[in-house]
Amino acid sequence: MSKFYVTTPIYYVNDVPHVGHAYTTLAADVIARYYRLQLGKNNVFFLTGTDEHGQKVAQAAEENKQTPKEYADSVAPRFKEAWKSLKIYYDYFIRTTEKRHEAVASQLLQKIRDNGYIVEGVYKGWYCVGCEKFLTKTELVNGRCPLHINKEPVYQEERNYFLKLKELSKVILEKIKSGEYEIHPISKKNEILSRLELGVEDISISREGVSWGIPVPWDKNQTIYVWVEALMNYYSATQFLDGKKRFWPADLHIVGKDILWFHSVIWQALLIAADLPLPKHIFAHGFFTIDGQKMSKSLGNVISPKELIVRYGVDGTRYLLLSAVKFGSDGDIEYSKFDEKYNADLANGLGNLIARTAKMAESVNLPGRELKDISLNIGVAIQLVKSDVKEFTRALDLIWKKISKADKFINENKVWALERNLKISALEKLTDDILQIAADLKPFLPETAEKIERQFKGPEIKSENPLFPRL
Ligand SMILES: [Zn+2]
Q1: What's this model's pTM, rounded to 2 decimal places?
Q2: What's residue 378's pLDDT?
Q3: Between 3.90.226.10, 3.40.50.620, 3.10.450.700, 3.90.550.10, what CATH number should domain 4-285 receive?
Q4: Looking at domain 318-456, does it have CATH number 1.10.730.10?
Q5: In this protein, which residues make up the domain named Methionyl/Leucyl tRNA synthetase (predicted)?
Q6: What's the pLDDT tens digit per position in 137-163?
């Protein structure tokens, strides 16, 4: 592999960044950092951004007495700030109101039509503004959208353009079965397969009544359905940015499980219809509940990344989120458990190992060291990030086993009490172990890894402030 392209969903600007967005983006950051170590910085492209069109944004803007563009301009920077504060280094932040995105999306839709995959029709059905989508009978629960029980779905009947999804879905089914593109976890892949096997209808890909959107190129009375145009961001960024064309197709789309259908079926259908190569892998992760309850604005239990950073620091937050649950499963955030884990693994575990080793090294004026074998710099543990199932938790487990092992070595050999020469050789071994741990930590806790390296690479090892103050 000579390049790697990873994406997060682009986040809808009617919401401000919360821990769910942070989790997805953090996962992409770890993977991007891993591949930068493997392939070099210039061969990795990490894209995130904001989804800024559609009825929901227009409505939120109106409530704020702003134009939709002004509104989007005020929310998009909040995502950028959140990612900066978590030390998430994306390569590009796309906004779907960028003219150059609009141009590529338009061209793509025109190509799909020229290829004969778009037909005109009339759409009748229930529309949920909260989801910005039509709901089928099977999706409605007591006549309401299950995700937006407080909002009445709107009955809409309008002339639309439709994508021939019924025809395309047969091709998609074959491609998933043959493994031409992968969906993980497998349980989610199976859900998609069984839904495809039940058969799907053509879908409406334009809107007559929504003016806040990209005009359909051949019919200025319609705009492109916001979901369709938003999906196109993954492709458009590679086309309008200099030198990025070679990154298409994407190697990995990371998405929340609620939007997997759009990414594994609708998006692929659009690409097949446009004669473009398909992304290679789609990973759907689970959701966090807060103290066992669904996170929601109405419950007032939405956690912002900032709240976590204030409590646990940047790397503390990164560690707690990434180690909370196997990637792909649902998890729960409970402050008391996070506090416990922070103290046990970070303050006592990693922090204490670094502090006591540095102190002993300082007492014998031990010079800093370099890892001898450069290939070891990318450790075995983080290779797990490369696996299809993105084993963040297992990788972190392995790193923490090394931390325990080093601690045990100090205790069993009573390193602090050894005579000078033996003490020096024991500390040299410990320093090498610690530098390996730092190398392993790089994609996960970049700031901590850097601090450890600075401290132990020399010229002389010195004790410093604790990495993770106890709570
Ligand atoms: Zn809804």
Answers
A1: 0.94
A2: 65
A3: 3.40.50.620
A4: yes
A5: 4-147, 150-357
A6: 888 888 899 888 888 899 988 899 999
Nearest to residue 466, comparing CAs of 356, 323, 345?
A: 356
* Residue of 145, 188, 257, 390 marked active site: 145
- Location of each CATH 3.40.50.620 domain in the chain: 4-285
Q: In what order do the strands lie in the sheet with 288-290?
A: 293-294, 288-290, 331-333
Q: Please tell me the distance from the alpha carbon of residue 24 to that of residue 327, in angstroms, as a whole number.
A: 10
Residues 458, 438: Cα–Cα separation, whole Å: 14
Strand 118-128 versus strand 154-163 pairing type: antiparallel
Contact 154, 130 (CB under 8 A): no
Burial-class residue 424 by CB neighbours within 10 Å (0-12, 13-18, 19+): middle
Q: How far is the CA of 127 from the centre of ligand 1 (A)?
A: 8
Predicted local confidence at residue 385, as pLDDT:
86
Q: What is the pLDDT of residues 185-212, one digit of tens each?
A: 999 999 999 999 999 999 999 999 889 9
For residue 368, give every residue at least 6 positions away whose Cβ sits within 8 Å of its Cβ, in sequence order, or none: 431, 455, 456, 457, 458, 459, 460, 461
3-state helix, strand, coil in the chain (%, to 5): 50, 20, 30
Q: Answer whether 191's CB lies under 8 Å from 284's CB.
A: no
To the query of whether residue 297 is one of the catalytic residues in this protein, the response is: yes
Indicate which residue of 177, 294, 401, 405 is catalytic.
Answer: 294
E-strand stretches of 235-274:
252-256
Residue 128 designated active-site: yes
Task: Find out whether 149 and 143 touch, Cβ atoms under 8 Å.
Answer: no
Assign 403 a pLDDT band (cuts: 50, 70, 90): very high
